[in-house]
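Progress report, Aim 2. The chain analyzed during this reporting quarter is listed below.
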Amino acid sequence: MPPRSFQYLSGLYYFMKLASQNVASTRYKIKVDSQNDYAVIRFLGGVTLELANSAFLDLLDHRSFRQNMDACYDFTGAIIEMDMKELEQHAEFVAQHLHQRGSHYKLAMVTDETLNSALLSVYKLLISKTSVDAEVFGSTKQSLVWLNSKD
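Predicted structure tokens for the chain:
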């Protein structure tokens, strides 16, 4: 019986490890609209610094991503769980990857929550030192109209 118990525990450990690695990718979805030349990251649940950084890197690794592609970060199904220091750390993390991401693109951030809106406005202020054109919107429809306007 001990070998079976060991195999069961080994299998359970492997499953739990695999599940923990996939948690981040189930808490956001990335879609690229190649025709309109923008990407959408839709966050679900709590958004931590680690999750935001992971989503950013996954966007860079997406097969259809190209440098300076406009983006919509949709937080309508999420709650931002970062304090001011973590928002600043994420802005610094993004800045460290500008050679891959590019620095001339539009970033639409969407939320229907007051606290999220305040935090996203702070993030917009933090990245105002860059040439990224960022705006906060109350609906995805408004954000996509803005992204599609080529000014």
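The domain at 24-148 is CATH 3.30.750.24 (Transcription Regulator spoIIAA). The beta strands are 28-33, 38-47, 70-80, 106-110, 133-137. These observations will guide the mutagenesis work planned for the next reporting period.
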